[in-house]
Queue: 2 jobs
Job 1
Amino acid sequence: MPCTIIVGGFFGDEGKGKIVAHIAHQDHPTIISRGGVGPNAGHTVLVGEKEYGVRMVPSGFVYEKADLCIGPGVLVDPRVFLREVDQVGASGRIYIDGRCGVIEEEHITRDQESEHLAKKIGSTGSGCGPANADRVLRLSRQAKELPELAPYIVDVAEKVNIAIKNGENVILEGTQGFGISLYFGTYPYVTSKDTSASQIAADCGVGPTQIDDVIVVFKAFPTRVGEGPFSTEMTLDKSHEMGIVEYGTVTHRERRIGNWDGQMARYSAMINGCTQVAITGIDRVDPACSGATRYDQLTETAKVFIRQVEEDVGCPVTIISTGPELSQIIDLRKRK
Ligand code: IMP
Ligand code: MG
């Protein structure tokens, strides 16, 4: 499929990073382009023993043959970007659209010192809210104005569209999750932009007619960081009892854990225009499935859960993650 969007179906941190990395290794995209808000997102990718947490570099960086892009809709923090490019060795194949909004130190201060954002909403403190506000007010600088970013600047939208036109595989990588969309989420406990598939396409400058597949990633046990409603949330005591403890990649705050939410999953899939579902954390539904790479290795408990997901969402589950490592995955997509 030439152009695939991968987005989070719940409140973020569904394991999109790993799904993007897996699909990239399978489908050999020439471009992996990141949409979404900005460095408030943290993608964790575990390759062998090594764990990477990226906030600006697309999480598909682990697939070394693709060019990595950051679409014009995304906010760029030049300090975070340059540090990560260096850390993961992406120089020479990573590009930023010149029109990206820039996060200044002052945006970060405003975010962290705002009673409303930092305390009430529980923002990540990465400056995204204030930077998007300034962008809407047309006060922000753009990436093309910063000399230190000059080596990376291209027209990402054009680059991506040319690749699609040439029939190359392209992945558009979403960040955040549906439940914290500014439009569709639990307002005001949301991030500073829409996070649905249409927004990710728009962030990269790709029109709706160019999209072939939308893979929505759901976590078997959804999580949420920051404040706001979470209808299937369980107590921390209960999640600890189940052995589920998670911390945010950006803020290191402990994540709130919930049970599967079929109603939210269905609504999220509808707005995202879901064509396929990826489900992560199946090893938490039944630890006996940990590390499985074939469907027939799954237990009946896990299969019952997957059938329930398909019924709730109304789309086929085609990718099943069975553990944190990249190779711990079952891929049921039709082979080309
Ligand atoms: P902000 O995007 O930093 O303004 O934070 C607003 C809300 O969105 C807070 O509840 C954050 O915890 C949440 N949030 C923002 N980005 C992410 C993400 O990538 N994963 C999970 N939660 C996020
Ligand atoms: Mg994350």
Job 2
Amino acid sequence: MSAKVENVVIVGTGCAGLTAAIYTARANLQPLVLEGILPGGQLTTTSEVENFPGFPEGIDGFQLMQNLRQQAEKFGTRYESGSVTGLDVAQWPYTLKLADREIRAKTVIVATGASPRLTGIPGEKELYGGKGVTTCATCDGAFYRQMDVAVIGGGDSAAEEALFLTRFASKVYLVHRRDTLRASKIMADRATSHPKIQPVWDSVPVSIDGVAEGAVSGLRVRHVKTGAESVLPVKGIFVAIGHVPNTAPFTAAVDTDEQGYFVTTAHSQVKTRTPGVYVAGDCADHHYRQAITAAGMGCQAAIEAERWLAEKGG
Ligand code: NAP
């Protein structure tokens, strides 16, 4: 193990992690940011971000994350790639365990975000990736020009994915298990009034056809009220049914709730029961889950880390 002890290690490079980096770097703490498998986090898979304050024309999600990264770097943030497998808080400074190394840190800010949830229906795993099942319209939508596709889900993500896919697909089925969308009114109205989007209400996905051929050829759905099953003749299936928090490597150091989200102490969104360990963003928030709220939590975590280090004598 290296003898070096970091002031602050930030795990994750989404809005929460990079905002924490900007603040701790400006506090002259020279933070080390660990980048995982999706640098930039979920916003890099979003197209236009219309609700981040300060961008009246909207901003491309990837561009926003590039901007945050550069802003943090300008003040002295260092980046390393590596996925954390564990956090040992038995002794201070704490030890972050990675596959190939260990890093010692006085404070840790965990901002690992959340990953897309999958349905678990037969055919999904077999056809995931380049075979027709995906969780990212921005990444894969262009492969489905002039084809029929289905989006599963009823939240803002599902509405956004469906709308994005209308640029390419001939028809977009929006398969939702209830008869009203959970999405915000503006997104729901845009989606349901779009001529290319056909809502499939009160329907749950049952299985995906095409496993033998190695490519999606249909989505079997069941109407929850009548029990009737039918097959939507689609070539692409976009799963948008929410997310699972990426908290598993940290459960020995930080409490989690029954859904796996980090639990913080009373009166704080970011403090955990372990002094010097803070959490921020979607890994600790299943209520708001916005880019701006994640950034806000990153800011809070950075200020807490800075104050705690100052109290400890740096
Ligand atoms: P979400 O709001 O949790 O919605 C998940 C959707 O998937 C719900 O409609 C849910 O149905 C459905 N669902 C969950 N499990 C399912 C299953 N096993 N089978 C079938 N359907 C299932 O997740 P999200 O859409 O990813 O949004 C997450 C957060 O990000 C939200 O706060 C959202 O507002 C925000 N967001 C905002 C924007 C934007 O403002 N532009 C864009 C994307 C996301 P029920 O409705 O029946 O529960």
